[in-house]
Known about the structure:
There is one protein chain. By secondary structure, this protein is an all-alpha fold. It contains 17 helices and no strands. It has helices at about 35-45, 50-65, 70-85, 90-105, 110-120, 130-145, 150-165, 170-185, 190-205, 210-235, 240-270, 270-285, 290-310, 310-325, 330-345, 355-365, 370-479. The N and C termini lie far apart (about 145 Å). Mean pLDDT is about 80; it is low at about 1-30.
Amino acid sequence: MKHTVFFIVVGSFFLFTTPFAYGQDIRDKWQDMPATPQSFATVMRMETPSEAQFDSLWNIVQQYCATDADTCLLLTTHAIGITKNHPITRLHGEALYLHGKAVIEQDAEAGLDLLYSAREILKNEKGTDAPAVIESFLGLYFSRINEFEKALEYQLNALEFAKASKDTSKFVTPLMAIGGIYFQMRSLEKAQEYISEAIKMQEATGDEQPIPALRSNQAMVFQQIGNGYLAMADTATVEAAKYHDSAELNFTKGLKAAEKGLAVARKTGVPTDVLGTLTRISSLQNSLEDYGKGEKTGREAMLLAEQLGIPFFLAGCHLNLSVSLRNLGRNEEALHHAQAGYAIVNADVRAGKMELFEEELMQLYKTTGRPELALPLMEKSMKRLRHDMEKRTSQAIADAETKYKTAEKEMKILELDIENEKVSRQRNYLLGGSVLLGIFSFMGYRFNRVHKDRNDKKAFAEALIFAQEEERKRIGREL
């Protein structure tokens, strides 16, 4: 293998999991009420909603939050007001959760406060997935802002709630989320461990709908492991061939996983699942240097991406096709796709990793003899790299300071505990000494008393014997 490493959608681990992920809905079924002005008006007229009416409100909120943030905020604010004194406390907790989700993108602190309040209300609720939903959403939030320790804590809590329900189908989402966090932390073996467990659990349920997402993410981890081996091969002075073989093995495993996902996606007929797995397969075929197949699969994916119009998929398809075509020597076609993908990501940062498109464009500009176009991209890339390094350094310093302060606080607590233990020990010594002194004093008193009693009895016996002897003598004289 002698190609440049390309790894598409590094930060998109959860993209395909949303249809069944915690946080999408709590109930098994929503009331059928579309997001229309009439439905909005109906919800805003609610005063003390029944559980069924609140289900409708929940549905409307979820739909508007995906398309209209301002309307979503109006609905969730209203939901809090009409459930504040509701006889069913759970509904108020769920309303707080909805509002927290709506607010957190604009005001993280306020959103977290709302979510924590909802968490407190719902933590002991039985017969509802709400506690697990909140834990999972908090885990996803902290994962997104790269606070992985907190993210893991919340997802592990969600897993515990799932285990408490004894419903193995509910294990899948937190297992997948934990795998995603480890993936972001570049702990790829741990990521693969949790994803494999999630797949095993899901397959045991017989529900195939989530399988394409699970398999696609599993393939993505294999691809990243393969990229790691390629990076080692590029820097190795010896055994480079061994690293190339390991990379190829993992790319092949990833391709097989993605193909299994595609087979299920075609069967279930969910377009985004088909598109997601096709995109992953095209990327892996490029990784395996099978650029002809990469192009063919990429074009099939592109047709579907253009039908669905989802920026993330469109950008990914353009990048895959650019890599395939560049390596097939069709540089102008490749440049068209690379520029189109770059424009999509430049307009919407959620559509992909900018540095991947910059790298592809630099490769093409260099290949086609246009260094003047490559230079600005290189400068931009270096600037971002420096910024990321500074950010990571600042974060590392902040983490170190936090750990130092925590350790210092724990040391003070430990010193206080030692001092308290010392005082307690001294108190015990004094108390013990007093007790022993009392025992010895009592024993001395008892000894003296016994000794005196013994002497008194001896003197009495001697006096008695003497008196008896004198009495005998007197009787003898009289006789």
